[in-house]
Specification:
The structure is a homodimer. By secondary structure, chain A is an alpha/beta fold. Chain A has 14 helices and 17 strands. Chains A and B meet through α2, α6, β12 and α12 of A and α2, α6, β12 and α12 of B. β12 of chain A pairs antiparallel with β12 of chain B, so a sheet runs across the interface.
Chain lengths: ~425, ~425
């Protein structure tokens, strides 16, 4: 029997659940893997705070530093979160050549390159299955099981809060504010939901996936990010007429010009498996040259799945002791980051217009002069007619810079009654 | 740089594709993993047969035995298939303490317990990611990334041929024979399709998954197996009226009475993610106590995904050299195998009847006398009415033995015009 002594930094809901799992999976890991986990120390900001019975009270110490300095720790688990203390703690831990597990996507999306380089140079492990997708086994699948692939694309619904909101808007015709309120009531959204609804959470996950899939060391703040706050129930209903649903996607693509990374609401064909991903579920779509398309689906959040992923990482590190795996964890390629203006995709554009003959023609001609090929154009007029309407245009693949230029030019046409807007179409 | 010398048994489409991958992923594995793969020997039945240029001609020898006896092989890859020579070859290879990778589900589903025990006793590795799900990373996910879970259920669409046929029947109203023919034309079904359409392939995969998820050492031939040959386009249309689709499912469940394993066509709610799995795609639904539900989706077959999974296993074994992983690969539990008669699930039953008042009442009463609770009962009468019809009954959870008993008793009622049949409902 091999004993693995865990030093825990932070003990919130995930940390506390990890302590419970260590207790409740003891027979499983002992019998199957010959591993006994032990919570050797728990460094917390407030040692006096009441905690569940399964958090070993006699192992609680004040602050992560006290745990870091302790001898005999085999694996450090960082569950402080954020990029303040957590960052210092993980750098310190790797600096001491300690195997480290973290669920901290913000930290990885900010400092992933430095952290992985430090881990490799020290010959120690850094694992983070819980940082992306909660219990969905996406990190191990990209990094290990699918490692004969060169990935073309990693795309998905990677944020449960926004997917819940968009699902309610689509299925019940709710407005954005109403759906957000429901998400907050159900515990799927924070009181301040901006981190999720603005797309920041999705961008952080995409940064981590892109590092693994493409060897791209691009931090989250450099990723083009648009949230869902401007999506309306009307847009949902309009695109349904063309067999599309609106989903917040995180998309990474390898192109001949470099890697494209973007987070934004996108139109997905209603027969595509991503369209069937409802409510708080996540789905990761991975496309590689060897395996083709694989989708991994599940709840992307929750203390229990996250703690399970952390424990699996601890076991992974413990079982790799003695191998040369640790100095070979990541390679970053010198890869171009394609700016959003250079992205090419299909576009669905909506123009609020006056209800007059010739309107579609004038808009279409302007788009044409920017080199945008139109796949179809449709007028949407309210009944009874009130002199106003919407023109909807679906383009073939076009360059975003051209689309934005064309929309500016259309603005000057006398037929518009308001600002046009658009969604990108993901095939 | 670590060189990993591969001894290949068999060189059909997957073996040949493996040779191509070894050539074409060289930079990937060298740079990222510090591993160089080398095809050291290829044992084949017909050495003179013409092969693609990427199969190293100077490494081809006659028969697997010649490769087995060769010194300096690091990992053996068995791609002969079946349970004849392949079985001897894998036992021989493990007996020599050689790490072995196989894609052979038939062999594992027949002799998995002996093979894994032999591997553990010799301290060598046995990997088989390619045996289930092709490129879908289901084996590694169950065995490693989700290993903090006690699994309640593993269920899924695990056979692409039958899913293609059922999808065409549903979406285009094709009959079974016509859809099978189309599957054969498209290369999704063999000329003799019985291995797939009778459910054997699915039962073999279920046997392997059940070993990993439940520690159940139950060979495929002991699994209750029903194929899709009796599914009709009419049944498809009827169940659509209740928001169900018919899918061939492989279902493993851990119950208080033991483990339930079964392969049969089942009704799946049309909003369930499994219902959206179309054509030749596979999907594995894993339910654990820690992670909840996870679904893994992709094409379950094809030489390239299979070869990619094999190569990933070879890398996995190579990187584990020097660890204690190899003596701890599987534990089998002394677990009861619940007979099909004791299975409890919902049932959808169809009774061909005469079109007369009182028919539903008589059938319902008979079912009731067997303790079967009816959720709903519906008459389906053709227009124009011709004196015949169908009664459809959806039951609450009931025991299969009781359902079969009730159907026998109903047979004696004077209202039936033919044999009743049923589908199980999977929630």
């Amino acid at each position: 029997m091999k004993t693995v002594r865990i030093g825990l930094f932070g003990c919130g809901v995930v940390g506390s659940e990890l302590c419970r799992l260590v207790r409740d999976t003891r027979d499983l890991f002992e019998r199957r893997d010959g591993i006994r986990f032990e919570i050797a120390a728990v460094g917390v900001a407030h040692p006096g705070k009441p905690r569940p019975e399964w958090v070993p009270a006699d192992r609680i110490v004040a602050g992560w530093n006290a745990v870091a300095a302790m001898p005999g720790i085999d694996v450090v688990v960082e569950l402080i979160g954020g990029t303040g203390d957590a960052k210092d703690a993980v750098f310190d831990s790797l600096g001491r050549c300690r195997h480290t597990v973290t669920a901290n996507k913000a930290l990885l999306a900010q400092s992933g390159v430095e952290l992985t380089r430090l881990a490799a140079s020290k010959g120690c492990g850094l694992c983070f299955e819980a940082a992306v997708g909660g219990g969905v086994p996406v990190i191990a699948s990209v990094a290990e099981t699918l490692n004969a692939n060169r990935f073309h694309r990693v795309a998905g619904i990677v944020n449960g809060t926004t997917n819940f909101i968009l699902t309610r808007m689509k299925e019940e015709g709710m407005g954005y504010d109403q759906a957000l309120l429901l998400a907050q009531e159900r515990g799927f959204a924070e009181p301040d939901a901006s981190f999720d609804v603005e797309g920041t959470d999705a961008a952080q996950k995409l940064s981590i996936l892109a590092a693994l899939a493409f060897g791209a060391g691009i931090p989250a703040h450099e990723i083009y990010t648009e949230g869902i706050t401007r999506v309306t129930a009307q847009d949902m209903a309009l695109v349904a007429g063309f067999d599309y649903v609106i989903k917040l996607l995180a998309i990474g693509r390898r192109t001949p010009h470099g890697v494209e990374l973007r987070v934004h609401p996108a139109l997905v064909n209603s027969r595509h498996p991503l369209a069937a991903v409802r409510d708080e579920f996540n789905a990761f779509f991975l496309t590689g040259d060897v395996t083709g398309e694989v989708m991994l689906y599940g709840k992307g959040a929750g203390p229990s799945p996250a703690a399970g992923a952390v424990l699996s990482d601890v076991a992974r590190l413990a079982r790799r002791e003695g191998t040369s795996w640790f100095d070979r964890q990541w390679t970053y390629d010198d890869i171009e980051h394609v700016p959003i203006g250079d992205v090419e995709t299909g576009y669905y554009m909506i123009f609020p217009v006056v209800d007059k003959p010739g309107v579609i023609g004038r808009i279409a001609s302007t788009l044409g002069s920017y080199g945008i090929n139109i796949e179809s154009a449709h007028a949407h007029l309210p009944e009874p007619r009130n002199g106003h309407g919407l023109v909807q245009i679906i383009s073939h693949r076009a360059r975003e810079r051209d689309v934005r230029g064309a929309l500016k030019a259309v603005r000057d046409l006398p037929v518009l009654t308001g600002e046009a807007w658009f969604y990108r179409i993901e095939e």
